[in-house]
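[agent] plan:
  1. take the single chain provided in the ticket
  2. run structure prediction with default settings
  3. attach C-alpha cells to the ticket
  4. add a short note for the reviewer (M.T.)
[agent] executing step 1
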Amino acid sequence: MPTTAADAEAATERLHAVFRQLGDDLRRAEAAVAALLRDRPEDDGLVYVETVDGPAAQAGRILELETGARHTFQAFLTGLNRITPVPQTLSEASDASDGDRRAPSGVTYQLLVDRDFLAEPAAVAALEERVRRGEQVRVTDSPLLKLAVADGDIAMVQLSPERAVLLRQPLTTLVTELFATVWRHSRPYLREVAELTPVDRQILQLMLSGLTDAATAKQLGTSPRTVQRRLRALMDLASVSSRLQLGWYAMRNNWM
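[agent] step 2 finished; step 3 output follows
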C-alpha cells in the first residue's frame, strides 16, 4: 500500500511527540539528581564520580559491571568509539573459563544497539547468541554513546575512546532515566516468526537499520545479489512494492 501524505504527516507528528517526551523525561531525571545531591550529607566519604582512562581500563570496568550484576545489566552498544571488538564486548563474560567471571544466573539483560554496532563484523552472530540466551535486545536508528549500568547502582559512561566516567548513586539516576527513555522509543530486535527464515530475519533487521545491501552482505557472509533477491521475496510475501512499505508491513504485522 503506498505511503500517503497523511501517513507522512502522522509519522512526523509521532516523531515530534517522541522528542517532546524525551526532553520531559531528561528534565525530570536532572531534577531528581539535583534533589538527591542536595539532600545527601556534606561529607559522607563516598566517591560519586571516578574517571577511567584508556581502552583497556574501560573494557575491564565494563566486564566488572556485567559479571558483578545481581539483578539487572543494561548497556548501550555502538560501533563508534568501541573499546573492545564486538565478540569480546558481547561474549567475554559468558565464555570465560573462570566461573568467577561469569555473571550470576537470574540477571535481566537489556542491550540497546545502534546502526553502527550492527555494521560491525560479528555483531549479528553475537546478538543472535544473546537472544538465544533469553536476553532482551532492542535497536535504535540514532547513534548511541557507550554506557553500561549494573543494578541501577553503578554506571560507566564513555566520554571519548580514551576516557570514561564511573558514576555511583545518586548520579546513576540520570543514566538509568536516559536508558529507559531511549529503550521505550526503540524497536525490538526482530523476533522469530513463522513467515521468516533466520537469514531473512537478519536481512530485514539490517535493512531497517539503514545498512546498504553491500554492508548487509558482508555482515552475513553472502553476496549483495543474494540480499536483493531475498528482500524482493519478502516484498512479494508482504505484497508491497518498496522497501519502505516492507518496513511498515513488518511493524504492523508483528514481525518485530
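[agent] step 4 note for reviewer: The chain has two domains: 14-188, 192-252.
[agent] ticket updated
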